[in-house]
Specification:
Blueprint (H helix, E strand, L loop, with lengths): L1 E11 H11 L5 H5 L3 E15 L8 E13 L7 E10 L3 E11 L2 E10 L4 E10 H5 L8 H4 L2 E13 L3 E8 L4 E3 L15 E8 L5 E8 L6 E10 L2 E11 L12 E3 L1
Parallel strand pairs: 14-15
Antiparallel strand pairs: 1-2, 2-3, 3-4, 4-5, 5-6, 6-7, 7-8, 8-9, 8-10, 9-11, 11-12, 12-13, 13-14
């Protein structure tokens, strides 16, 4: 015979995280949750269905609803504040849909997915205060670009993490951002200049990253591929190519080069 066990409960989010850490695989979700600290309340429902003889090994699925929580989810990243939304899981994946919070001084919303293989993806959209964005260590490889920007950045951000590679990709219209650069790259806050910035690194060499940039500036579009390496607390370019008003070279970057 089949049996279904259903539970409902509420309580502090941090207490639920401690339970999830103990139940999760140590080298997958458990390792990720080990870095998470949170405040706030949750309401949870859990259900398992299976044969009576295997009651102790029932496949569980459930749902957690967050209300006004604060979550520090990765070292070096600002915490999510006033987080609300719904988190669902089954035996293999976790999914968060229509999550809403305050982050980097502005509102955001997004989705998250995590598989027991260790792969996860975060997709966010919102608006960030650039002073706060520059202070985030994870964006240090792009510091040269961010240092020239002022205002509020509307963005879409995708963060991917697998056993082999970590990467993030930022896209923005730049409307609301001023660029403090010489002409033709000086920009007021009202103009739209589509930007795409991507940083990727392999897990076996996290001190090295590949940075790709495209900026659709009306007078002189910019493209770049640069390899950077961490030296101490700073990221420094070691090879790359820039193109201003011209295509990038076809060969991968092996030395500093400029076209256009």
């Amino acid at each position: 015979p089949q049996v279904t066990v259903a539970l409902q409960a509420s309580g502090p989010l941090q207490a639920w995280l401690r339970v999830a850490r103990r139940a999760a695989p140590k080298h997958g979700l458990g390792a990720t949750l080990a870095n998470v600290n949170a405040t706030g309340q949750v309401r949870a429902s859990v259900q398992g269905t299976g044969p009576w003889q295997g009651l102790a090994q029932l496949p569980w699925r459930g749902e957690i609803r967050l209300e006004d929580a604060n979550v520090a989810w990765q070292p070096g990243l600002p915490p999510l504040q006033k987080l609300s939304g719904q988190l669902q899981w089954d035996g293999a994946t976790w999914r968060a849909r229509d999550m809403r919070a305050q982050w980097l001084g502005g509102p955001i919303q997004g989705d998250l997915s995590y598989a027991t293989s260790g792969a996860w993806r975060v997709q966010l959209q919102g608006a960030a205060n650039l002073d706060r964005l520059r202070a985030v260590q994870a964006f240090a490889p792009a510091q040269g670009v961010l240092a020239q920007m002022r205002g509020t950045l509307p963005f879409e951000l995708q963060w991917d993490h697998t056993a082999a590679q970590a990467s993030w990709r930022l896209t923005s219209s730049l409307q609301g951002v001023a660029l403090a650069l010489p002409a033709p790259f000086n920009k007021d806050e009202a103009s739209r200049w589509p930007l795409e910035l991507q940083v990727s690194s392999s897990q076996d060499q996290p001190e090295r990253s590949q940075v790709e940039l495209s900026l659709d500036a009306p007078a002189a579009p910019v493209a770049a591929q640069v390899r950077v390496q961490r030296r101490g607390n700073a990221w420094q370019p070691v090879a790359g190519a820039w193109a201003v008003g011209a295509p990038l070279p076809q060969d991968p970057p092996s030395a500093q080069a400029v076209s256009g």
